[in-house]
């Protein structure tokens, strides 16, 4: 029973972080006008979070292996709370940049440590479900964050950040008293993947590198698609902000539902690698199809189901990594976060360049990247547990 409550607390920690990240979405235009921030600076400000997480995730993942999961999670939650508080009080662009970078650092502390903690608390039988719940918590944070941020912003444009800071502080205090350092997991496949060389060499071990490459490809495809969804359909079909909110929120909710209901049965029936292959090709087809749609309801229909593919790839890769990482759970979680952040930095930048050439190009490019990922999973990726 204690493990069950600890899992709930871990899901809550992840939820709070991504809720805090998405709270900023409806507030940023007001902050931009208040401080006379240009669009380019706003873009850099948004990227600062992902870039900092990108840099520090590999180190914090190893720290979780060396010093323990709990201390890394607690530190991350307090850093997160401070970063949100700093943003709430920030009156200069320099302070806002420091705040976003601290937020990225907090994410780097929390994500790999929570992933490793969940792996340690679960068994081979229920791990897929637990990791699926973790991803659902991330998505739920993104789903309701903008709505809560918009409501709070009606009172004050800074209030969302103060609320996020309080949630981070509460999460950190609860973690101190309620989390118990788990016994680290060693899987059967560990003898095939355990590496005593440097992290750099471990990264390029085929069994790890291909998994991380697939994480990057899936995250890149999502970032390229999602970051320009609103602008794309505003220009193409004249979507209003409420139309865009319905499409993204509806799609995210159905994706989260698929993770909770479909993921574990699919893992048992076809395994992680086949889920990844099917989800990638499913997503590539729908991203390509959506560029040809020219009616409101056809776009809504595809938008509602397109996130299912994205939302099944991540927990499938995470579950696969948890089985083959052995005593390197923190390393696997850190590199997972690293490649996700790398895609979140590069994807929107390249998509923006392509969008200025032709608004369909970001989606075509996303399709090409996803197809490359599919080819990699089919011809180059093998499960060491079946060798």
Automatic annotation (TrEMBL):
It comes from the Bacteria. Keywords: Cell membrane, Membrane, Transmembrane, Transmembrane helix, Transport. It is found in: Cell membrane. Belongs to the major facilitator superfamily. TCR/Tet family. The keyword Transmembrane helix applies. Its main location: membrane. SUPFAM superfamilies: MFS general substrate transporter. Residues 6-385 form the Major facilitator superfamily (MFS) profile domain. Involved in quinolone resistance. May constitute a membrane-associated active efflux pump of hydrophilic quinolones. The chain crosses the membrane at residues 7-25, 37-59, 71-89, 95-119, 131-153, 159-179, 200-224, 244-263, 275-293, 299-317, 338-355, 361-381. It is a multi-pass membrane protein. This is Quinolone resistance protein NorA. PROSITE patterns: MFS (PS50850), SUGAR_TRANSPORT_1 (PS00216).
